[in-house]
Amino acid sequence: MVEKLTDEEREYYLLVRKAFTILAPFYDTVAAPFSGVRDRVVNFTDAQKGSRILDIATGTGQQAFAFAKKGYEVIGIDLSEAMLDVAKKKNKFKNAKFEVADATNLLFEDNSFDVSSISFALHDMPLSIREKVLKEMVRVTRPEGIIVIVDYDLPKNRIGKFLIYHFIALFEAEYYKNFIKSDFEALFNKNRIEIIEKDTVLHGAGIILKGINNKL
Ligand SMILES: C[S@@+](CC[C@H](N)C(=O)[O-])C[C@H]1O[C@@H](n2cnc3c(N)ncnc32)[C@H](O)[C@@H]1O
To answer: Phi and psi for 22 in degrees, rounded to 5?
Structure first.
């Protein structure tokens, strides 16, 4: 059965498709500040040798490449063909593959991956989509597998918090404001993801969360 989209969800799909078609050729330049985070995510994930990893909303594939460099089998999926075209052109790894897919409705079977990751994408989504994406990550990752989320955070001190919030709100979509104020950990708990480690990145403007898939 095809699920009916809300007006907000329809608007989000239009926005994502349009924005990333325009942004794709420049994305790696714009996202250069994140480049130092990629290897850190791989080390932090600390997946077992031979793990199968799904990188959700992979964009131009930078996080997927960082996993592939360490020998993992990686599949990167994204809604935007334009972003994936960049990833495919830059891909020099036999163990990294890219496919167009909607993260809210993946075609993979249950428990297909040891690890699933998503970086700098959840903040770009309305809450209902964020929830659907997390549900799909839980479904396609095996029980006790690892779920890694990398995204914006706010520094602890008041001035840093104020400055970073207003700076990022300047260029991110409206969903960012809801995302950054939301109770992220409650959303994880609701989806049976148990957070076992956190790492602050980008001087407090970003966070890596490592969770265990506790589905039954
Ligand atoms: C800000 S980019 C992040 C790309 C990459 N993960 C990174 O760390 O650089 C967000 C990506 O999420 C993708 N995206 C948004 N909604 C999606 C969905 N429902 N399914 C798959 N990809 C989606 C966009 O097409 C875009 O490539």
So the answer is: -75, -40
Indicate the pTM of the whole model.
Answer: 0.94
Residues with CB under 6 A from ligand 1: 16, 20, 31, 34, 57-59, 62-63, 78-80, 83, 102-104, 119-121, 124-125
> Residue 16 C-alpha to ligand 1 middle, in angstroms?
8
Q: How far apart are CA 26 and CA 20, in angstroms?
A: 10
Q: How does pLDDT run across 37-89, given as a tens digit for each residue?
A: 999 999 999 999 999 999 999 999 999 999 999 999 999 999 999 999 999 99
Q: Which domain holds residue 52?
A: 7-28+48-213
Tell me, yes or no, whether 137 lies in a domain: yes
End-to-end CA distance of the chain: 25
| CATH number of the CATH domain containing 84 | 3.40.50.150
